[in-house]
Design goal:
Layout lengths: L1 E8 L5 E2 L6 E15 L5 E5 L5 E4 L5 E3 L2 E9 L3 E7 L3 E4 L4 E8 L1 E5 L4 E5 L3 E4 L5 E6 L5 E8 L1
Antiparallel strand pairs: 1-7, 2-6, 3-4, 3-5, 3-6, 3-7, 8-15, 9-14, 10-13, 10-15, 11-12, 11-14
Length: about 150
């Protein structure tokens, strides 16, 4: 029980986020800068791939700024995590759904018997727990967003 989305704003005006009661949101900027407000709790400025804001989807929240944001929304009965991969590494698939969104550039996933390439805007989903592989990020400033959801 989760959702992944990409949304854009072409205006500096503040706009509300949808109310997602019983969900935890993981928010990151893919492009631009956003000032995110959480109605009296705190506010935060998010730049591209800089920070991940994790907050209750039921909060009254809004954002201002010209940006493209990336959201992972996970039901509270599940657990989630999100991070950025921008260097070559080895990854081991853990329990749950392991997802890799290519936000910028391209990357190659090298398994024992095959290679899978992903380009900007593409999502790779893996569920084979215990599988291990290399991730080679291109030299062009590639950015992958790794997400894992376990229910």
């Amino acid at each position: 029980m989760f959702r992944v989305s990409v949304a854009s704003s072409d205006t500096e005006e503040e706009a509300p986020y949808s109310n997602l009661q019983n969900y935890t949101r993981y928010l990151m900027m893919l492009e631009g800068t956003a000032h995110v407000y959480h109605n009296g709790r705190y506010d935060i400025v998010l730049n591209s791939y800089d920070k991940i804001d994790i907050f209750d989807g039921g909060w009254e929240s809004s954002a201002a700024g010209r940006m493209t944001d990336f959201n992972l929304m996970v039901h509270k009965e599940c657990s989630g995590e999100m991070s950025v991969i921008d260097k070559n590494c080895t990854y081991e698939v853990r329990s749950g759904m392991n997802m890799f969104f290519c936000g910028r550039g391209s990357a190659v996933f090298e398994f024992a018997d095959e290679k899978i390439s992903v380009c900007a805007g593409e999502l790779l989903i893996l569920e084979d727990e215990g599988c291990s592989f290399n991730i080679n990020v291109g030299r062009n400033g590639a950015k992958l967003i790794m997400m894992r959801v376990c229910c």
